[in-house]
Amino acid sequence: MYEYQQPDARGHFGPYGGSFISETLTHAINELRQAYARYQHDPEFLREFRYELAHFVGRPSPVYHAARMSQEMGGAQIFFKREDLNHTGAHKINNVIGQAMLAKRMGKPRIIAETGAGQHGVATATICARYGLECIVYMGAEDVKRQSPNVYRMKLLGATVVPVESGSKTLKDALNEAMRDWVTNVENTFYIIGTVAGPHPYPMMVRDFQSVIGQECLTQMPTLMKDLRLPGQQPDAVLACVGGGSNAMGIFHPYIPYENTRLIGVEAAGEGLDSGKHSASLERGTPGVLHGNRTYILQDENGQITETHSISAGLDYPGVGPEHAWLKDIGRAEYVGVTDTEALEAFHHMCRTEGIIPALETSHAIAYGMQLAKTMRPDQAILINLSGRGDKDIGTVADLSNADFYCRPSCRGQSVKGGVGTPAEQPIHLIQS
Ligand SMILES: *Cc1c(COP(=O)(O)O)cnc(C)c1O
After folding, report:
1. What is the 408 CA–ligand 1 centroid distance (Å)?
2. Whether residue 254 is found in the same domain as residue 334
C-alpha cells in the first residue's frame, strides 16, 4: 500500500495549495478551519451527513458494468459510477450538503456561491431551500444569458441570482464579486465553493466530502468484478474528468493507496492541446497563484490568466485543484486531454450504446476510457466516474451537431437499414456549425 498523507497543517500539497488571501479574509478563513477541524470527525456531524446522502441524495449511487460498450471496444471491462443518479443530477450535491451543514453549526444563515454553468448554483440553492438558509448566487451576466434554464431553477428554489456585469461577465468575474461580498458580510455569511480549489481548508474539505464516491466504489467493485469472474478485486484504472477537479478527487482519493490502480484525470483539450483554445491547466499550464492557492494555471509570460475554452462549461476553468498538481508531480495520477469533437462523439456513443445521456464534462472521461479499454485485456477493468447527467447539455449538442444528424430519413419514419440507432454500422461524424 502506498503511503499518502496530504495536505500538511497549513494546507500544502507539496509546493501547492496553501492560502493566499487578503488580510480582510483571515478571520473568516480561520473560523472555517476551526469549525471544520471540530466537526470533521464528530460522530453526530458524520451521522447527519450520511443520513442526508442516503435520504436526500439517494446514495449509495450504483456502479454498473457497461456490457455493450465493453464488448464493442473489445478490451477491458468498463464500469460506470452513477453520480448522474444523485438528486440534482451530478456529484456537486455531496459537497454542498457538507458545507451547508457546517454553515448551520457556525450560525451563518446567509450562503453565497458563484457559478459558471449554473450546476453548483442549483445544488447550493437546493440545499439552502432544504435548510432554510438565504442563498445568493453570483453569475456572470453572459452566463446568465447562456444558462437560462439553470437560472430559472435557482429562482424557483428561492435563491437570488446576481448577474455580474464587470470584466468578461463570466465565472472569474462572478468569483471576484462573491469574494467582495464575503469580505463585507463575513459575520453572517458562509461561502460555499463548488470544487477542490480556493484557500485552505477548501481543497481538503471538498475532497473529504466528495470522497464518499471512491469509498463506495472500494466496496462495490470487488463484488461486480467477481460476478464477471475477473481476477482482480479493484479496477486497473479509475478515470474522471477534471475541471476544478472535485469529482476526480472524490473517486481518486480512496484509491491512492492502491498502487495497482492507475488514476487518470481527463482535461478539456478544447480545439486541441496546441490550439491555444483549451482548459488543460495540468498539461499546458505552469505553477502560479489563482483563487487563493498555488497550482497549475493557464497564464501568459506576464502571469496574466489566458482565455480558456471547452465545449463543456463545467471544465472551462483556467486553474485546477492543488492536490491534482501534486498527484501529477509525484506521478501518482496521470492527466490527459480530450478534444471537444472526441467528447461529442463519446456523448453520442454513450447515449446509443448504454441508454444514458451523460454530461458533456463526463463525456471527456468516457472518450478516453473507450480508447484506453481497447489497449487492455478483457480480464481487466476500467472504472469511470459518471459525474453527471446531460439533460442540461442537449441544447448545446443540438446547436453543435449538423442538422443532417437529426433529419436522416429514418427520423421521418422511413425505414433505413443501419440508420439512426445503430452506431456500430453507421459511425457518427459531427460537423461544428
Ligand atoms: C461541475 C461539473 C464538473 C467539473 O467539476 P469538477 O470539480 O472538476 O468535478 C464535472 N462534471 C459535472 C457533471 C459537473 O457538473
Report:
1. 33
2. yes
The answer to whether residues 313 and 170 belong to one domain is: no
Whether 242 lines ligand 1, by a CB cut-off of 6 Å, is yes
Give, using CA atoms, the residue closest to atom 5 of ligand 1. 243
Domain match, 220 and 338 both = yes
Is residue 433 part of the annotated active site? The answer reads: no
- My answer on whether 189 and 242 are in the same domain is no
Order of strands, sheet of 110-115, starting from the edge strand that comes earlier in the sequence: 160-164, 134-140, 110-115, 189-191
433 residues of the chain, pLDDT tens digit each = 778 999 999 999 999 999 999 999 999 999 999 999 999 999 999 999 999 999 999 999 999 999 999 999 999 999 999 999 999 999 999 999 999 999 999 999 999 999 998 999 999 999 999 999 999 999 999 989 888 999 999 999 999 999 999 988 888 889 999 999 999 999 999 999 999 999 999 999 999 999 999 999 999 999 999 999 999 999 999 999 999 999 999 999 999 999 999 999 999 999 999 999 999 999 999 999 999 999 999 999 999 999 899 999 899 999 999 999 999 999 999 999 999 999 999 999 999 999 999 999 999 999 999 999 999 999 999 999 999 999 999 999 998 876 444 444 433 333 333 333 333 334 344 444 3
Q: Does ligand 1 have an atom closer than 6 angstroms to the CB of 273?
A: no
Residue having the nearest C-alpha atom to atom 3 of ligand 1: 314
How many domains, in total, are found in the chain?
Answer: 2
Within a domain: residue 288? yes
367 and 315 part of one domain: yes
> Could you tell me the distance, in angstroms and rounded to a whole number, from the CA of residue 315 to the centre of ligand 1?
7
| 97 and 118 assigned to the same domain | yes
Is position 397 within any domain?
yes
Q: For position 401, which CATH number holds? A: 3.40.50.1100
In a domain? residue 7? no
User: Which 3-state string (H, E, C) describes 181-226?
Assistant: HHHHHCCCEEECCCCCCCCCCHHHHHHHHHCHHHHHHHHHHHHHHH
C-beta 270 within 6 A of ligand 1: no
277 flagged as catalytic: no
Pocket test for ligand 1, best of 86, 153, 239, 247 (most atoms within 8 A of CB): 247
Three cell numbers at 218? Answer: 472500494
* Domain residue limits at 272: 60-89+211-410
Answer whether 89 contacts ligand 1 (Cβ < 6 A).
Answer: no
22 belongs to the catalytic site: no
Spatial separation of the C-alpha atoms in residues 214 and 429, rounded to whole Å: 35
Residues 293 and 323 in one domain: yes
Question: Ligand 1, atom 1: nearest CA belongs to which residue?
Answer: 314
> Quick check: CB of 277 below 6 Å from ligand 1?
no
User: Cβ of 226: how many Cβ atoms within 10 Å?
Assistant: 12
Q: Is the CB of 6 under 6 A from ligand 1?
A: no
Query: Are both 48 and 183 inside the same structural domain?
Result: yes
Query: What CA–CA distance (Å, rounded) separates 111 from 182?
Result: 10
